[in-house]
Write a structure and sequence with these properties.
The protein has no helices and 11 strands. The protein is mainly beta. It binds protoporphyrin IX containing FE (HEM).
Amino acid sequence: MEPPTMNPVVEPLSWMLGTWLSDPPGAGTFPTLQPFQYLEEVCISHVGQPVLNFSFNAFHPDTRKPMHRECGFIRLKPDTNKVAFVSAQNTGIVEVEEGEVNGQELCITSHSIARISFAKEPHVEQITRKFRLNSEGKLEQTVSMATTTQPMTQHLHITYKRV
Ligand code: HEM
């Protein structure tokens, strides 16, 4: 089957498309946590709809044991730079983030977070993410969060190379 033609609505996000692998490993931080490293595989694709599909799958750098996983969709409001990011995570949360794409940088912040009734505490109350394509053609993601015990602080920073 022919690969689908990209819908022009998502063209401003075309720099995110591809399969990406952490290089170097990602860095995890938070005031309540020991700093940690992780590997992550990211797939961002489209099927011709005005929406991108994504999956982020993290692994332990030594054991390769699966860690955090999330998947969802990225939408663009036609004829604007307004972006909506919808994600379901293996930790039992579902979140909607909104923001803007400017050139090869996407900044989004959570508008709503829902969680299962028995989600682990502390609960995340707000999430912000920044994605950008750097001058070396690598994708970078930075995630900050506020929880029920901590103010907004960086949790993750990772750089990916296209594979
Ligand atoms: C811990 C949220 C992505 C690894 C936590 C905690 C929260 C959280 C609320 C508890 C913090 C505390 O105890 O004070 C999130 C959210 C994510 C995310 C909202 C995505 C938007 C990731 C990713 C990894 C990761 C991609 C990579 C492996 C960890 C680890 C811990 C942790 C190792 C500490 C152990 C644990 O509680 O499981 N995260 N996280 N997180 N997170 Fe994340």
